Structure formats: C-alpha cells, structure tokens
Fold this protein.
Amino acid sequence: MSSSVKGMRDLWGDELRWFRRIEEAVHRVFGAHGYREIRTPILEYTEVFKRSVGDSSDIVNKEMYEFLDKGNRSVTMRPENTAGVVRAMVDHKLLVNNDPQLFYYMGPMFRYERMQAGRYRQFWQIGAESFGVASPESEAESLAMLFDFLQGLGLKSLSLSLNSVGTPESRPAFNAAFRNFFDARADSFCGDCHRRIETNPMRILDCKNTRCQEALEGHPTMVEFLDDASRAHHSRLKELLTALDIPFVENPRLVRGLDYYTRTAFEVLSSDLGAQSALLGGGRYDGLVKVLGGPDTPAFGWAIGLDRLAMVLKQLHGEAPFNPPPLLIPLGEAASSKALRLARQWWALGLSVQLETRGCALKKALGSANRMGVKLALILGDGELEKNAVAVKHLETGQQEEWALEDVPLKLRERLSQKP
Ligand code: HAM
C-alpha cells in the first residue's frame, strides 16, 4: 500500500499555500460582515443527510460514505455542511429567540463521485449560512459578501446563474404542468428522467443528457408557477442585485442537486473552470430547520468549492508566493549552543528563522537551503562568534556581508517590509 485513497489527495506546497491565502481572506472578510465560525463533526448520523439533502438526490443515493459504527449506528462522512450546521443550530437552541444567526465554515467534505478534473472524493468547502431572516435583503447582503470576497481574490469573469424553485406549496402546480409536457414527448427522455418524473420531476431540468436537454425546449418554468409572495421576493432580489452591480443571468433550468431549496437557488460559474463545473452554489432553504427538529426558521446560504477556487487562482495568478525564513547555520558545537539561544530570542520577538541542527558542513547546509528555496543564510562560525556577528549570504545573488548580532532583528524586519 503506497498510494492515497482514490479521489483523496495530500495538500502541500503551492496548492496548500493557495488554500491558506483563501482561508485567511475568509476569516477577515466574513468576520467583518458579522459572521461567526462554526466547526461541526465530519461524521453525522446518516438520517441528518437523508432528511435534508433528500432521498432522491444523487448525493444520498450514490455518493455517501455511509457505514455502521461499532455500536451498529448508521453514520455518514458529511457530503456537505448545511445539514450539519442546521443540526448544530437546533442542538444548541440558537434559533429559539428568532434572532438572526450568521455562521461560516471551512472544511473537508466527502462524496463518492466519478473522477473528473476538479472533482474529488475528499474536497473542501467554504460556506456561509444565515438563519432567521426571510427577506431578499438578507440574500443580497450574503451575495454582496460573496462577490466582494471573490473579487477581492482577483476573480473577474464570474457569472451568477439565478432561479426561483418555488415553495412546497407552489410545486404541485408546476409538477402537473411539467408532467403534461413530459408525457407529450416521453420517448425523447432517458431512463433516468423516466424515474425522475415519478420521484422529483424538476430534477429532469438538470439532466446532463443532450437529447433530454433538447427535448426540454419550451418547458414550463418554475417561475411561472410562483405564488405572489415568492414572485415579489424574486423580483426584489433581482432589483437589489442590479443596484449592487452584481451581474446575474436568469436560468430556468437551474435546480441544484440538493432537495432542501425553496425560492432562491443559484450557482456561480467561473469561465476559468471547465464548462460544467460550478465554483459554488446555494440558495434559500426555509423548511430545513423544521425538518431537523428546530423551530420554523427561514435560512439562506451557499458553499464554495475551495479546491476549485484554488485552481482558478493559480490559473490567474500563478504560484502563490513562497518565502521560507532565513536559515541560521552554526558551525561547530559552541556556535550551535549560541545559535539555539539566538534563534529563541528572535522567535520571541516574532521573527521567523529556521535552524540548521544537523551539525553538518557549510556546503551541505547551503545545498539543502538552496533546494528549499531559502534566500538568506545566516552563518555562525568561530570567527563570527568572536566578533558577535553573523556572516550573511544572499543565496540568489551569492553576495555576502556581515551583520552585528544585535542588528539582526532590525535587518530581518527591514527585509520583510521590503517584500511585496
Ligand atoms: P453543492 O452545489 O453540492 O452545494 O456544493 C457546493 C460546491 O462544492 C460546488 O459548487 C463545487 O464547487 C464544490 N464541490 C461539490 N462536489 C465537489 C467535488 N466532488 N469535488 C470538488 N468540489 C466539489 C452544497 O454543498 C450546499 N451545502 C451549498 C449550500 C449552503 N446551500 C445552502 N447553503
């Protein structure tokens, strides 16, 4: 056994550096909007996902890492985090006072999916969920945060694909009209769609089969069947998005792969990703808190695929900057003791420095430093010890100079402040 599990990979080097940059921006931007972080367990009881994501969804049917634990309870490695966050809201009774509650999360999710570019079995999501507010204004606020965040990372070619999938009350009328439409051209639809017409007709709109997509030409849309309140909600959201300069395209075939959505549903595509890959998706899910045992609470949120976001940023900006700290290389035992004490003083001052502890020859230490991408070597030999100084070698240029030990913190700080 020498490879990782299919669809699961190690994160390190440049990819991890992009992850870290994105994660830092998440804490900063989402925190500034009043969102608080939440971390829920990776394992939940299987029921949590079956009841929320939906029995007829691909995620629940085909993609869950679901197993019995040693106590014979069915548990599942979370395929998404909205259900877990809602379960936590209910467990901690955070929704009983009807106050707005804003939370964000980051972490790994697990779906047993067919392998494709940018699609993994362990992947990461960044998500934001807001509870307790039913207004289109709360959706506009959340989407403004999302766009500010993505644009702040340098993403420009983003398109918001928007739909309203109605409510459980408005859906039967749509389903009936859609059934008539389907029956009139049933031969043109695939076997999966024939199953979907019985279990969840609106999923047909999302079928990847090109023949089905052609047969859908002129289909009844969910927006046509909205009740008055949902229609007004949809119009107001579009008005707010326009006022906020958030460009969107209405997409009557957008249904999303999870069953909990009501009214607003959306995805954001980046032209830097493959044709069918959404960078993120989300929407309103006003019924879910109640389904999981909490009070009737409106909710709205979305989740970004962090793997995909990191991929786009790398395509746009290249490698994430990598600056390993200077390497302090002591030569001999006396210098080693001194170097340990010095490095500790510098670390205590908040400086970054890496210590060569192999007691090896200078040539070997410099060879490793070059391979690690270190730019500055601080060399402490007997001569330097006597002078209370370090020899400083700039590895990119080969230039060498000497710094008094007491000046090192200042000099290192100056170098840092010159970095972009
Ligand atoms: P989702 O559309 O299933 O929504 O996933 C959101 C994003 O996660 C996708 O747009 C994609 O970028 C990423 N993603 C999904 N599966 C994979 C995979 N196998 N490999 C890489 N990336 C993937 C949700 O999960 C909802 N919980 C979003 C939400 C939050 N709705 C309301 N609140």
